């Protein structure tokens, strides 16, 4: 876990445009006004649910994790190089484009202890600490600290609403939360960093409650031997709208 934390850059939250939502007056002015509004929205970041609806798109959910060739997540001190420049670049691209984070209980409890105590020259810790976080747990009770909100009720339905609010949502690791989102058709991409190492006897490894078909979107190989694969769920070509 420490290796993941050391590599993971913190993210810059998107601009809050809720005050600029399209209201009743905009809709009442007819298609010409609506077309002009859509043109105004093109080419800039959109974080308002009303604006996103006008453009006919929902937010994107990405699951990202690192593992060995035999699917192991733990014992990272043996196989995870936090200074690998290509890993850092890939992580930067993912998290700096995100607006919110989905976490399970264990990740939330670990990260909330680690990140608030961190400082760095690049400002990663400050950004990540400020990012809105949503925690799926049946044992925690709210309110939560560290700019986090407990997901109460149906997780899939909550994430559907979050996709209307945020442009890009990321989740780290592949556990019960990730499996729930995949089953609900809410995951657009799965990013897997596959490291050239075999652990063998390990408890914490990639598991899924049932087979999940994926289609390859892109694959890159690094000088270090790491394979960065980007997938989408095979069913219907990705997440539901």
Number of strands: 8
Spans with pLDDT under 50 lasting ≥5 residues?
1-7, 9-43
Q: According to CATH, what is the class of the largest domain?
A: Alpha Beta
Percentage of helical residues? Answer: 25-40%
Mean pLDDT: 79
Could you characterize the architecture of this molecule?
With 241 residues, the chain is an alpha/beta fold. The protein has 2 domains: 18-56, no CATH class; 58-237, Dihydrofolate Reductase, subunit A. The chain contains 9 helices and 8 strands. A hairpin with a 5-residue loop joins strand 7 and strand 8. The longest helix is centred in the N-terminal third of the chain and has 12 residues, at 30-41. Mean pLDDT is 79; it is low at 1-7 and 9-43.
Report a brief summary of the structure.
The chain has 241 residues and is an alpha/beta fold. 32% of the residues lie in helices and 20% in strands. The protein has helices spanning 2-7, 24-28, 30-41, 49-54, 85-96, 105-114, 124-130, 155-165, 176-183, and strands spanning 60-68, 100-104, 133-136, 148-151, 168-172, 189-195, 214-221, 227-233.
Fold blueprint:
Elements: H1 2-7, H2 24-28, H3 30-41, H4 49-54, E1 60-68, H5 85-96, E2 100-104, H6 105-114, H7 124-130, E3 133-136, E4 148-151, H8 155-165, E5 168-172, H9 176-183, E6 189-195, E7 214-221, E8 227-233
Parallel strand pairs: 1-5, 1-6, 2-3, 2-5, 3-4
Antiparallel strand pairs: 6-8, 7-8
């Amino acid at each position: 876990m420490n290796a993941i934390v050391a590599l993971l850059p913190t993210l810059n939250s998107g601009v809050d445009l809720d005050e600029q939502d399209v209201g009743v007056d905009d809709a009442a002015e007819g298609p010409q006004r609506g077309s002009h509004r859509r043109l105004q929205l093109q080419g800039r970041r959109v974080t308002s649910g009303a604006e996103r609806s006008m453009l006919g798109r929902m937010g994107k959910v990405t699951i990202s994790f690192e593992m060995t060739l035999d699917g192991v997540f733990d014992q990272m001190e043996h196989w995870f190089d936090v200074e690998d420049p290509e890993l850092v670049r890939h992580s930067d691209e993912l998290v700096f484009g995100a607006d919110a984070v989905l976490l399970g209980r264990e990740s939330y409890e670990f990260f909330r202890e680690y990140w608030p105590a961190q400082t760095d020259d690049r400002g990663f810790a400050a950004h990540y600490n400020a990012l809105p976080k949503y925690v799926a747990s049946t044992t925690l009770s709210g309110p939560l600290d560290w700019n986090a909100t407990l997901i109460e009720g149906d997780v899939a339905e909550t994430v559907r609403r979050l996709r209307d609010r945020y442009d890009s949502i990321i989740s780290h690791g592949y556990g019960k939360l990730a499996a729930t989102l995949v089953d609900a058709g809410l995951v657009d991409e799965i990013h897997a960093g596959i490291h050239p190492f075999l652990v063998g006897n390990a408890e914490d490894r990639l598991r899924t409650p049932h087979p999940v078909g994926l289609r390859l979107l892109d694959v890159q190989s690094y000088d270090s031997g790491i394979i960065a694969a980007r997938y989408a769920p095979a069913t219907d070509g990705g997440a539901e709208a």
